[in-house]
Amino acid sequence: MTQVSEPLDLSTDKTLDRDCTTLSRHVLQQLQNFGPDAQDLSALMNRIALAGKLIARRFSRAGLMEDVLGFTGEVNVQGESVKKMDIYANEVFISVFKQSGLVCRLASEEMEKPYYIPENCPIGRYTLLYDPIDGSSNTDINLSLGSIFSIRQQEGTDLDGEAKDLLTNGRKQLAAGYILYGPSTMLVYSIGKGVHFFTLDPSLGEFILTEENVKIPDHGAVYSVNEGNFWQWDEQYREYIRYVHRTEGYTARYSGAMVSDIHRTLVQGGVFLYPGTLQKPEGKLRLLYESAPLAFLIEQAGGSATTGTVDILDVVPKQLHQRTPLIIGSKKDVAKVESFIQNGH
After folding, report:
1. CA dist., res. 11 & res. 32, Å (int)
2. Angle at CA 305, nearest 5°, toward 89 and 188?
3. Chain segment 87-97, per-residue pLDDT in tens
4. Mean pLDDT score of the chain, rounded to an integer?
5. Phi/psi zone of residue 215: left (φ > 0), alpha (ψ -120 to 50 degrees), beta?
6. Residue 236 near residue 340, CB atoms below 8 Å
7. N or C: which end of the chain has fewer CB within 10 A?
8. pLDDT of 4 strictly over 90
9. What distance in Å separates the CA atoms of residue 138 and residue 152, rounded to the nearest whole number?
10. Which helix (H) or strand (E) holds 243?
11. Cα dihedral sign for 305, 310, 315, 317?
């Protein structure tokens, strides 16, 4: 005889206890006013969230749809093979911000020059810099990926279309963060007032606040680096890796998608490294689209980010697609790597 289950007691459903603070509402609360600048930032974050929802939906159906996965056969301005999802995600950000009325320019690692939205430029005072898909190598194997973003205020008129006002240090960023596409879709952001986690609730279609004022531990057990490049690094980096190999308590984790590794580092502590190589001492990561936004976020959480000699947020780029080495994470772990670079131990 089939037993009839007890009626669901909604009073015990702890998910209903959450305040359900949405992203746009949270931005306004952070700024503690409803003035034009606060409204602008709230609207911009809403647009970033919309882009994240569209990309997450595409990922969730990727294996069921034709012409979503794989390479396009083209090479981007960085000299890298382009995935179909790279192109889709880049176009999503453009489409979403065309409708914002606030953004005059979008700069992406997938585009050689900024994309201008003429109809927005008379009033659009902001620029969005972004990496539409971080970790493209994970696209076709169903592993975590991310998007990285940064918001800056336009300085000057930029009549020549060279966007030279973007060639300033990372402390000029108004906001930065990332979207993580994993078992759940998360949006992590800062407007210079702490770091906050939001999780996409598919039933509501909203990013809901799940953790506020996140702090990175001062030290963590995990180091994250592509050790396949070991023999291409300077000796100081190799010596650091030898140190963690022979020191009890360290664990290696590396996903191939920086957003995933940074998120783990932010939650659990530790350090993420992407050194330059002997052939390319400038490294692989783009300063404006990857390193500076993540450095802004990690510093807001109480961590550190450096090239090994200079704080990432103090580096002034000479070109839009400038690359930089990156050491980022818990303060004590970043300092340990720096000590090897600067002192050899």
Report:
1. 33
2. 40
3. 889 999 999 99
4. 88
5. beta
6. yes
7. N
8. no
9. 29
10. helix 235-246
11. negative
